[in-house]
Design a protein that fits this description.
The chain has 539 residues and is mainly β. It is built from five helices and 32 strands. Pfam families: Cu-oxidase, Cu-oxidase_2, Cu-oxidase_3.
Length: 539
């Protein structure tokens, strides 16, 4: 059972009444095997609506358990409960779970580790020790108040005050060093770190002093192993790395700081944890010897981020769809709405008296208030959504150039794009420079996809198709679309339901950087959505 409740949590010298699961921050780690069926009863004892999303779980035919509020379910009201039931089918590795309602996932999150089936093994030798490493973001405030104030004013929300590693900011923040996370590794052994970026709004660089990291998986899909001294994870992404205890026994800093690709303010602090060898001499364990610090890239080091993200390959040849039924082109980026007539200037505190917004293909996504889209689809309730989400931008322009101000104001609406069961889909995700370019972590619910190419500038279908990797592209559930650049993904729409695709920077989903695919049922029962559970919350 997961109980959502307010719990006193002290960070940065101050106690906050923090929303947690079972009083734990971060929340409990779920450890399961491939093939397991999970039954998780979520009871809401907090004062906010809540839902839980099982990030990266494919939810084959069980879209009702996916969790995004007003997409696949109405929220669990204060005092209410809902039981999530789903089976893990053909997935293993590191995923995570988090609230999918307002900004609750700032503190409501935890690791979801899927071990191989009984009798099956990792494609690398079994590590001596495994440790989940959850990277988070902490506000010295109530995160719900932070987003509500931003929505009220139209300005960008206040940036966070700290990053955290397994819930702790570390030695470089006030009142924090006595609780710094310590990660034990075995000397002379190989250890597995399961790194999860659970931060709300920030891509992060990650490094360990004097240690190389061998990447073996990402988003619960194995990759061709490669070695690096730094990781870059967008929010929502996971990366499994092997680390060898091959240095002199002692203590070494693990450090995390922002990869901030946008123009504008960001949390420029550094979170630390300590990698400690199990046979560290007692003298070193004392306070007197400071751990060694790793070198981290500069906050705007896009070259390092790109080198990392383009290193991923599947371990062997994969079955990439080559015939494409749906060739889609989606712009992703920010916008500014002019101050609505009759509004006071206090509600238009964005640049030059505007309000921040965001969109895909100039559509700024609005959650329906009274029904979830899946419910409306399943029960044939009219007026909740329309199926005319544009397959291409309504206006072609120089997406990453100097964009005319006439294109900065998107249209608000609740539109989905319909896919036939089994459709082979390609989506070009094209970043824009409107307001500012930024690396956007785009997450698709209900599916993994192949990232077949990425690049900078405007995608050119004449020349950039030559860069497509149709042999061994990586499988992901969240794609970091390069700053002022593009990514191309492919998947087969073989899971019926309504599936949100959105930027995993929560500030951007708040502003409308999202859309949904409606995947129709196939022919047989095994190609059709299950009936909704009896305890599905009502709005």
């Amino acid at each position: 059972m997961e109980q959502i409740q307010a719990t006193p949590v002290k960070r940065l010298c101050k106690i906050h009444n923090t929303i947690t699961v079972n009083g734990q921050f971060p929340g409990p780690t779920l450890e399961v095997n491939n093939g397991d069926t999970l039954v998780i009863n979520v009871v809401n004892r907090a004062r906010y609506n809540v839902t839980i999303h099982w990030h990266g779980i494919k939810q084959i035919r069980t879209a009702w358990a996916d969790g995004p509020e007003f997409i696949t379910q109405c929220p669990i009201r204060p005092g209410g409960s809902y039981t999530y039931r789903f089976t893990i089918q053909g997935q293993e590795g590191t995923l995570w779970w988090h609230a999918h309602s307002s900004w609750l996932r700032a503190t409501v999150y935890g690791a979801l580790i899927i071990y191989p089936k009984e009798g099956e093994f990792y494609p690398f030798s079994k590590p001596k020790r495994e440790t989940p490493i959850l990277l988070g973001e902490w506000w010295d405030a109530n995160p719900i108040d932070v987003v509500r104030q931003a929505t009220r004013t139209g300005a960008a929300p206040k940036v966070s005050d700290a990053y955290t590693i397994n819930g702790q900011p570390g030695d470089l923040y006030r009142c924090s060093s006595k609780d710094t996370t310590v990660v034990i590794v075995d000397s002379g052994e190989t250890n597995l770190l399961r790194v999860i970026n659970a931060a709300l709004n920030q891509a992060l660089f990650f490094a360990v002093a004097n240690h190389k990291l061998t990447v073996v998986a990402a988003d619960a899909s194995y990759v061709q192993p490669f070695t690096t001294s730094v990781l870059m994870l967008g929010p929502g992404q996971t990366t499994d790395v092997l680390i060898d205890g091959n240095q002199p026994p002692g203590r070494y800093y693990i450090a995390v700081r922002a990869y901030a690709s946008a123009q504008g303010p960001f949390d420029n602090t550094t979170s630390t944890a300590i990698l400690e060898y199990n046979d560290t001499p007692c003298s070193v364990q004392g306070i007197n010897i400071n751990p060694i610090f790793p070198s981290l890239p500069a906050f705007n080091d896009t070259a390092t981020a790109t080198t990392f993200s383009t290193s991923f390959r599947s371990p062997r040849q994969v079955d990439v769809p080559t015939e494409i039924d749906e060739n889609l082109f989606f712009t992703v980026g920010l916008g500014l709405n002019n101050c609505p007539r009759g509004s006071s200037s206090t509600s238009c505190q964005g640049p030059n008296g505007t309000r921040f917004t965001a969109s895909m293909n100039n559509m700024s996504f609005v959650l329906p208030p009274n029904f979830s889209i899946l419910q409306a689809h399943h029960q044939g309730i009219p007026g909740v959504y329309s199926t005319d989400f544009p397959a291409v931008p309504p206006v072609k322009f120089d997406y990453t150039g100097n964009v005319s101000r006439s294109l900065w104001q998107p249209v608000r609406g609740t539109k989905v794009y319909k896919l036939k069961y089994g459709a082979r889909v390609q989506v070009v995700l094209q970043g824009t420079s409107i307001v500012t370019g930024e690396n956007h972590p785009i997450h698709l619910h209900g599916y993994d996809f192949y990232i077949i190419a990425e690049g900078f500038g405007n995608f050119n279908p004449q020349t950039d198709t030559a860069k497509f990797n149709l042999v061994d592209p990586p499988t992901r559930n969240t794609a970091s679309v390069p700053v002022n650049g593009w990514s191309v993904i492919r998947f087969v729409a073989n899971n019926p339901g309504v599936w949100l695709m959105h930027c995993h920077l929560d500030v951007h989903i708040t502003w409308g950087l999202a859309m949904s695919f409606l995947v129709e049922n196939g022919v047989s029962e095994l190609e059709s959505l299950e009936e909704p559970p009896v305890d599905l919350p009502v709005c």
